[in-house]
Design brief:
14 helices, 19 strands, 29% helix, 486 residues, nine-stranded mixed beta sheet, disordered N terminus, globular
Length: 486
């Protein structure tokens, strides 16, 4: 595969090609398709991508980038040869690495952009390393594992002038744009409450960490997979999917689905940092009146309530429910009408009405569903070509155009948007983890000071102001010499 110069030289290269074509045509501009034939994409309009995380979601991400027609998959990286096998067959010319650090060190001059589709706990270090080399980045949701990481990546994206996007493809869909138009037209008045729910987790949660370790498969570099996380022996049924239920690696149902489900109301209402958080969580009993205590893992279900300030100064209640817990059906919804998509959904309550949608903002509707006034609201928010399916191509084209371009400014989920959204999602997890903080009593038993309280949140300074012990979950400690590099 022919190596391409970094994208930072792209503007001058395109200018040279344009000038050469003009001269060859006697100073007449010649369309690119005439020079290269129908469907031709010039090298100057393509980027070279390195895919970090080549199996599972990484595999589909890489394929979608390639199908945009403006990307070459030049490099693949995965700690597990088994997971990478299909992508390596699909892109046989792509050079393969196991360690992303070696990939970036040796090949950064040949790479324009990086996709990162790995377990949550390693997103931030990989993303920061790529951005510090001037590489554009596409990162799967949630953007990061903790709040501090999200803030640092958001600031770094602007510092290094790179093109960024988070993998919450619903943000490119038509549905959320229609909801914005309805809200801006005043069809439901000012929002007062938001309800978000999911049937996740669909992996084991609320269980004890396995006591017996075992030998990892020969194709898996276990130490590299652990990355920033504390060292533990390899256990079965963790890789490649169930890591989501353990705090060292995943972010639970919130991290898995909230960037898809909370995004529509965030965008519709223009929300920022929350001001308060409180929660309740489901319990697992291991004996009669004996509640299990498994702080290493996410709970089987939870209900988080966040508060945000609206432009009017009034508080907005924002509810998140997972593990199959759902809000009460709105009176405006008929008894046989489905709420959301059944297992997941969003309801926004306002002073004049309500609206509802499914996961990713799909199928937005005003309540009651018989309302017709929504059809009269004009389309004022630009649509993304191919909707949520165009989320990948949107980022690729913005990478080609460069930071600050029109394409860059139209991105659906750059870090400037995805970062604050992720922080609010992870604020819910901070509340859930604070719920399990316990202190031994002198006469036996434990106190749980994080339960039955609300956490007051100073968003700009990333700090809980009324329960200092909760702040341990704002920023985690990395193992060994792993570092975010800031």
């Amino acid at each position: 595969m022919k190596k391409q110069k970094p994208l930072s030289t792209g503007n001058s290269r395109r200018a040279f090609l344009k000038g050469a074509a003009t001269a060859a045509a006697g100073f007449y501009l010649v369309p690119r398709h005439v020079l290269g034939g129908p469907g031709y994409t010039a090298p100057s309009d393509k980027i070279v991508i390195a895919g970090i995380g080549a199996g599972g979601k990484g595999q589909s991400d890489i394929n979608a980038m390639y199908q945009s027609g403006h990307a070459e998959i030049g490099y693949l990286c995965d700690v597990d040869d088994r997971r990478a096998a299909t992508s390596r067959e699909r892109f046989p010319k792509a050079k393969y690495y196991k360690d992303y650090r070696e990939l970036l060190e040796k090949e950064h001059k040949n790479i324009d952009a990086v996709t990162i589709s790995t377990p949550d706990h390693n997103h931030a270090v990989m993303t920061m390393a790529a951005m510090q080399l001037g590489k554009h980045v596409y990162v799967q949701k949630p953007l990061t594992h903790d709040i501090y990481e999200a803030r640092m990546l958001t600031e770094a994206a602007e510092k290094y002038k790179v093109v960024t996007q988070m993998g919450n493809q619903g943000s490119s869909g038509d549905g959320v744009r229609r909801m914005v138009e309805w809200y801006d037209a005043g069809l439901i008045g000012e929002a007062t409450k938001v309800w978000c729910w999911t049937d996740r987790p669909v992996w084991p949660q609320g269980i004890k960490w396995p006591e017996q370790g075992t030998t990892p498969p020969k194709e898996l570099d276990w130490d590299l997979w652990l990355g920033t996380a504390p060292y533990k022996e390899y256990v079965d049924n963790l890789v490649p999917f169930n890591w989501r239920g353990w705090w060292d690696y995943g972010t639970g149902a919130l991290g898995d689905m909230a960037c898809h489900i909370m995004e529509p109301p965030f965008r519709t209402l223009g929300l920022g940092y929350p001001t308060e958080a409180e929660c309740s969580v489901g319990s697992v009993y291991v004996g009669e009146f004996q509640r299990g205590y498994f702080p290493d893992g996410c709970p089987p279900s939870s209900h988080v309530t966040l508060k945000f300030k609206m432009p009017s100064g009034k508080d907005l209640e924002f509810h998140w429910m997972d593990g199959g817990i759902q809000p009460t059906r709105p009176e405006e919804l008929g008894p046989n009408e489905q709420m959301g998509d059944g297992g997941n959904g969003v309801i926004i309550e306002g002073t004049k009405g309500k609206m509802m949608c499914s996961t990713y903002g799909i199928n937005p509707m005003l309540l009651p569903t018989s309302r017709e006034d929504g059809k009269k609201v004009p389309k004022t928010v630009p649509r993304v070509e191919n909707g949520d399916n165009g989320h990948y191509a949107q980022w690729v084209k913005a990478c080609v155009a460069g930071h600050g371009s029109k394409e860059f400014k139209e991105l659906s989920s750059p870090f400037s948007i995805a970062g604050p959204l992720t922080e609010s999602v992870l604020m819910g997890n901070l509340a859930i983890r604070s719920y399990d903080i316990r202190k031994p009593r002198e006469n036996g038993g434990y106190d749980y000071p994080g339960r039955g309280i609300k956490l007051v949140w100073d968003g700009p300074n990333m700090k809980v102001t009324n329960f200092d012990e909760a702040n341990q979950f704002v920023r985690r400690n990395y193992r060994g010499d792993w570092s975010l590099g800031v």
